[in-house]
Amino acid sequence: MPRHRTLKRIAWIAGAVAVVAALAWWLTRSKPVTVAVATLARGTVESTVANTRAGTVTACRRSKLSAATGGQIESLPVHKGEQVKQGQVLLELWNADLKAQLQLARDEARVAAAQENSACLQADNAAREAARRQRLRRNDLISADQLDQAVTRAKSTAAQCRAAGAGSEEAQSRVNVAQANLERTILTAPFDGVVADINGELDEYVTPSPPGIPTLPVIDLIDNGCYYVEAPIDEVDAARVRVGQPVRVTLDAFGKRAFKGTVSRIGAYVVELEKQARTVDVDVKFSPDTDIRRLLAGYSADVEIILDRKDNVLRVPTEAVIDGNRVYVYDPKSRRLKLTTFKPGISNWTWTQAVSGLSAGDEVVTSVDRKGVADGARVTVERHAGRP
Hints:
The protein folds into three domains: 46-58 and 225-384, Elongation Factor Tu (Ef-tu), domain 3; 68-93 and 186-222, CATH 2.40.50.100; 96-183.
């Protein structure tokens, strides 16, 4: 066989092998992974802690009221849901007998006061007479016995005046006792608020709770002019919480709207509902400019306590961070990923501060849990506008 034919056949076979190899590589090569990326920029990063279970909107004052004594309900001038003022009568038991006793005590007090006035007038007159007789005695116009009689009469009537005064005070004390007994049958609002519930009807009998046996209060009164949030914070996070720290409060009833507040109290002990769920109760008061007229006691609430805040820092979407300090950076030239280590700063569920190791404009993968995402992987991207 001519030499050139042999070389030609070898070249043809080599070309066929190369084509087959290229085809095999093309068919078996890995396909690019589609990933979501976000472009890094500067902004605000906060370090926060949040409640472990839903918190509760609580009224600053709430009183579950009952009359101090038992009796039949004679008057119930308020209704459930009604707004009342401090001192307004909420309930009155039948008390005609106590009103009569109070009137009798007042009449007796008036009599005692009149008797005191009479006795003291006589004492004043006797004192003046004794003074006149002292002048007469100095001029030897009366005897010493006559002077002694006048002085003794003055002292006696003065003592009667004091006794009458004590009797008048005693009578006034009886008025106060009768008034107190009457007030025990009248229930008034200790503060402005709304009647949350009423447990009783006209002509029903109510009795105070016996020792150790609680009974339903007749009136449940809520101060709807002041609210705070009580929320449980995990014991691990509670040590970093301080009174006065700013807080964002969100309520399910208001969607994504956030209310401003501050930490006003940190519980003095750990609440152990379960061995695996130990929390510390934290109270959050709303900012003075908060419109609380639409709030209701009992709303569920979530709190986000801001421990630290840094503005104008490079920030990374927290969902892009792996093991706390690594991210996949997308290289648009090679269309491949590079696993990059950076130095993190403060962080929360949304953002992590990048102190060093990354630059503004870098594109990092936010879909790190997708299959095929790895160092050096070839990818196609779908971009997100900064925030994950």
